[in-house]
Amino acid sequence: MTRVVVADDQPVVLQGFAAIIGAAPGLEVVGAAKDGRELLRLVAVEKPDVAVVDVRMPVLDGIAATARISVEHPSTRVLILTTFDLDEYVYDALRAGASGFLLKDVTAERLVEAVRMVAEGSMLLGPTVTRRLVEDFTARSTPVQVTGIADLTPRELEILRAVARGLSNAEIGAELWIAEPTVKSHVSEALRKLGCRDRVQLVIAAYESGLVRS
């Protein structure tokens, strides 16, 4: 059973998301919070697998709360929800450790799927978010040094580039003519060598290092 907490400062939205997630097989909502500080208390007590977090909340916003969760409770993955498709906090949220980013107008089915994907460690970025990330990274004139890039094998570099394009393990396997479990193994090695917690962080590393350019 995947344990989930939900945080949003709008009561109707909070109750709605909690109801949708709680009704899905295999998912259990163990708490709901109306601000970031309350969210941190919930995460500390309940130790959920996933926290579904609104970006804009009083007392402590979603970005600051995500950063705290990533450091203090690294086993809890954060799925960010926002009203704005070009929210200025997209980049900051992902850098803070968020594992996914979706708009609040998603369907109930997509929300449930997103929670499950994030719980499994999959990357979850909408097309608009991915484009925003690419624009942010490629606007940099000079790539930054990313520890571990030099340690990747040629195959791991190839797979990292594919991950940065948003491909799933199955899609990478089909493109490179290798088995999906082999892809998963290479992704795991890349995560270890680069010190990344999930695929979102791999994408960030790929762009920051200059390995991938638009």
Short description:
The chain is an alpha/beta fold and 214 residues long. The protein has 10 helices and 6 strands; from the N terminus they run βαβαβαβαβαβααααα.
Helical proportion, percent range: 40-55%
Strand order of the largest sheet: 2-1-3-4-5-6
The chain-level structural class is alpha/beta
Q: What is the first-to-last residue Cα distance?
A: 39 Å
Q: And the CATH topology of the largest domain?
A: Rossmann fold
- Order of SSEs, N→C? EHEHEHEHEHEHHHHH
Gyration radius, in Å: 17 Å
How much of the sequence lies in strands comes to 5-15%
CATH class of the largest domain: Alpha Beta
The dominant shape is globular
Largest sheet: 6 strands, parallel
Helix segment count?
Answer: 10
Can you name the CATH architecture of the largest domain? 3-Layer(aba) Sandwich
Low-confidence regions: none
Per DSSP E runs of 2 or more residues, the count of β-strands stands at: 6
